[in-house]
Specification:
This protein is 25% helix and 32% strand. It has two domains: 64 residues, Spermidine synthase, tetramerisation domain (Spermidine Synthase, Chain: A, domain 2, Roll); 218 residues, 3-Layer(aba) Sandwich (Rossmann fold). The radius of gyration is 18 Å and the shape is globular. The strands form two sheets. The protein has a seven-stranded mixed beta sheet, sandwiched between helices. The chain has 297 residues and is α/β, with parallel strands linked by helices. Helix 2 links the parallel strand 7 and strand 8.
Length: 297
């Protein structure tokens, strides 16, 4: 999933290119939009928390859309989910207990189960309909939810974290937009609760937007996390359907350096590798300048 404050609506519209032409259009910023030709609408409901849409696209296969923001598609979701998980778990000294906040689609869980050292995985997403939709329409994304190590809890993650101090080795914040029920997941008080829920030497990762069109959002989220965690790092990678195609991942650490690789996933990855791991932490000067005051060297 992704963090995008500006997208609160979407359009499904016919376009006179060929007969019965139907398109999904996401307004990614006030001046930029993404359009995908869709062949069918598989699910379109209003949950207790957001508008949930599943469509079949001609270019990227099936797509999950929440409140008008494109969460992922069949053809490229792996770039995001692998980068949300493997730089963190491949560098943690001993990640036995992992929490995923949000991410009801199960993509991050699928990647976590590739680490044999992990003994318990908790997925906490407030919207049970997202979990159901992924199980129904995205079996390759949600397959990890059936692993015996996984506990799926459709509830408020803020409350869950506060109720579990010093419990987890790693926490992955895979939230939707910072509006309504998710707004508290991107501020310092939440990260203080996250730090309290981590064991000694714990680490957290959160996706933090495009470094090109969402620089203010990136710097704000990084700064908020940096007020809590003594060590801060940023890595980045490709995500074709997100604004500008480049995405960032902020890592807060209570000790370990996420640039140090300690293990590899036990199963196949399509984007992540040891070379990608190392390269993802190499930042261009404009990003370094944006984050300089809070970036660990």
């Amino acid at each position: 999933m992704r963090f995008h404050a500006r997208v609160v609506f979407y359009v499904i519209e016919p376009i006179a290119i060929r007969k019965n032409d139907l398109w999904f259009t996401e307004y990614q910023t006030n001046a930029m939009r993404l359009g995908l030709r869709i062949t069918s609408i598989l699910k379109n409901i209003k949950t207790d928390y957001q508008q949930l849409l599943v469509v079949e696209t001609e270019e990227y296969g099936r797509a999950l859309i929440l409140d008008g923001a494109l969460m992922f598609t069949d053809q490229n979701e792996f770039t995001y989910h692998e980068m949300m998980v493997h730089p963190l778990l491949s560098s943690h000294p001993d990640p036995r207990k992992v929490l995923v906040v949000g991410g009801g689609d199960g993509g991050c869980v699928r990647e976590i189960v590739k680490h044999d050292c992990v003994e318990e995985i908790y997925l906490v997403d407030i919207d049970e309909e997202v979990i159901k939709a992924s199980l129904d329409f995205f079996p390759a994304v949600s397959e990890g939810l059936r692993d015996e190590r996984v506990k799926v809890l459709p509830m408020d993650a803020l409350k869950f974290i506060k109720d579990h101090p010093a419990t987890f080795d790693a926490i992955i914040v895979d939230s939707t937009d910072p509006v309504d029920f998710a707004v508290g997941l991107f501020e310092a008080p939440f990260y203080r609760d996250v730090a309290a829920a981590l064991r000694e030497g714990g680490m957290v990762v959160a996706q933090t937007e495009s470094p090109f069109v969402n620089r203010d959002l990136l710097s704000h989220a990084f700064l908020q996390m940096g007020t809590v965690f003594p060590r801060m790092f940023l890595c980045w990678g490709a995500m074709p359907t997100y604004p500008t195609g480049s995405w960032t991942y902020s890592i807060g650490s209570l000790g370990p350096d996420p640039r140090t690789i300690r293990r590899s996933p036990s199963a196949r990855t399509q984007y992540y590798s040891s070379d990608i791991h190392r390269a993802s932490f190499v930042l261009p000067p404009f990003i370094k300048e944006l984050l300089r005051a809070n970036l660990s060297q």
